[in-house]
Amino acid sequence: MTNPMTDTDAPINTLNERVALSNEWHARPLLTLPSPLRCSHLVCLRGETSLDERREQFAEFCESQGQSGPSKDSRHHSVNVGNCLLKWEGHTEADSYTLLVAGNAEPPFAAPAISFLDAAMRSKLVDQLFLGVHIEVICGEESPQESRQQRVRALLGRQEVYGGSISDGEGEIWSSFRLDAEGFSRIVIIDSDLSEARLSRQVQRVLEIETYRMLAMLGLPAARDVMGTLGELEPALDEVIEQIAHRDADPALERSLERITRIAAKVEHVAAAHAYRFAAARAYNGIVERRITELKEVQKESAPRYTTFLQKTLMPAMRTCEAAERRTQELAQRVTRATQLLDSMVDMDQKKQNQAILESLAERANLQLRLQQSVEGFSIFAITYYAVGLLGYLFKSGKSLGLAISPDLLTGVTAPIVLAIVWLSVRSIKNRLKR
Predict the structure, then answer these.
(1) CA-to-CA distance for 279 and 285, rounded, in angstroms?
(2) Where does the chain cross the membrane (predicted)?
């Protein structure tokens, strides 16, 4: 009995593979520090650089600091660099660097966590920056809510702030969603009664929200490009369909088929070029929505919530991506239907042309048959004429030999007989050829 399981279907049973899969459950350890603390989070798009190259670059930095680098095929690594705890993580299309430093700066945000890196590494990360976030975790103080919000506004340097309570009122999160001079956004987390583990989870959720909301937003420029391209292709398709509907005005269906084929090729190119970006945007948006739910933010007084601002901006962008993707699919379906209709019409015209050709060939064959029959009639008389002539010479030769015959009489008598014999012979040959 043969084993139906092929080599590619074989179960994963090697020790290395089982260990690697098991370690995935522990691959993202939380960075924990008690409050107060400072956090800097940087995301750098990978572009043409591979994950292996980024891993090697981070390993070289770790070695320069006298620390061990990430292992081969690792996507996460944490090291202590002086007073700073640094974590590198390789994502699908970006790399993130998270730095934690115990204590607060005075004033807050004056010395963010990234300032504890050496100048070369700091400059390199800032040059590649796609997203930057500074977080200040401060200890909550018993004070009226109004004075606390005034303090948050002073820390963020903005009157318009967004935030609310998290973790069942044990903490608060605030942000203005504005970028500072270096391109970093600022977030304040107030620790009223958060445990160290719970604080770490909430900080991690906030960092993931900030990271994936911006990665999801990469789909918005692509959606706008798609909308612009489709805005040019749709009128062209409508024009072709109108020509098909009024085909008497434009009988050249082949030209319409050529145009619609070009439109179909462009639509397929648009769909293929942006399929990954729209799929990635959906996946990133799903992560953001889950992390927003896990954050469990509750509104504080009249201030708009942190998550409300996120959803107010992110949801329309995602709807735009969905609309662009759906519009592309609908246009592709319209092109397919129009192509099928045009193919049917072209096929019908070709069948009509073929039918006309067949009728013309049949008519020519019929004329040829009549001509052949006429030629056969003439050939019967010609054969009879030559046969009777030969018999006439034969009769004259007999008379010259002394036979008492009349050559002219015998020729006249045998002529009908020869004609009948020739006619029967030709008819017999035709009947044999028809079998």
Answers:
(1) 10
(2) 377-395, 401-426
Question: Which one, of 201, 200, 173, lies nearest residue 187 by Cα?
Answer: 173
Cα–Cα distance list, 423 to 18, 82, 233, 254, 379 (Å): 97, 122, 74, 55, 10
Residues 187 and 174: beta-carbon distance below 8 Å:
yes
Same domain, 325 and 382: no
Pairing mode of beta strands 84-90, 94-102: antiparallel
**60, 184: one domain:** yes
Is residue 41 in some structural domain? yes
Is residue 331 within 8 A of residue 230, CB to CB? The reply is: yes
- For residue 224, give the amino acid letter: R
The helix/strand/coil state of 24 is: helix
* Inside any domain, residue 210: no
49 and 91 in a single domain? The answer is: yes
Look up tokens 């889950």; give the residue.
290
In whole angstroms, what is the distance from residue 35 CA to residue 189 CA? 10
Strand (E) or helix (H) holding 174:
strand 171-179
| Residue 202 counted as domain residue | no
Give one DSSP letter per residue of 379-398, joined into a string: HHHHHHHHHHHHHHHHHHHH
Angle CA(216)–CA(181)–CA(166) in degrees, nearest 5?
55
- Asked if omega into 36 is within 30° of 0 (cis), the reply is yes
Q: Which two tokens stand for residue 319?
A: 């709807």
Instruction: Kindly state whether residues 330 and 271 are assigned to the same domain.
Output: yes
What are the two backbone dihedrals, phi and then psi, of residue 97, each rounded to the nearest 5 degrees?
-130, 120
d(CA 435, CA 337) in angstroms, rounded, equals 51
In-domain check, residue 83: yes
Mean pLDDT is lowest, of 37-51, 57-71, 308-322, 342-356, for 342-356
pLDDT in tens, 283-301: 999 999 999 999 999 988 7
**What CA–CA distance (Å, rounded) separates 8 from 198?**
43
User: 163 and 228 in one domain?
Assistant: no
Pair 70, 165 in one domain: yes
Arithmetic mean of pLDDT over the chain: 84
**Are 230 and 351 in a shared domain?**
yes
**Cα–Cα distances in angstroms (integers) from residue 353 to residues 258, 339, 345, 360, in the given order:** 20, 21, 12, 10
Number of domains in the chain: 3
Give me the torsion for CA of 43, 48, 50, 55, rounded to 10°: -50
Task: Provide the sign of the torsion angle of the four alpha carbons 58, 63, 64, 66, taken in this order.
Answer: positive
Predicted pLDDT of residue 2: 44
Residues paired with residue 14 on neighbouring β-strands, in sequence order: none
Task: Report H helices in 1-156.
Answer: 15-23, 51-64, 119-127, 145-156
Q: Do 342 and 377 share a domain, yes or no?
A: no
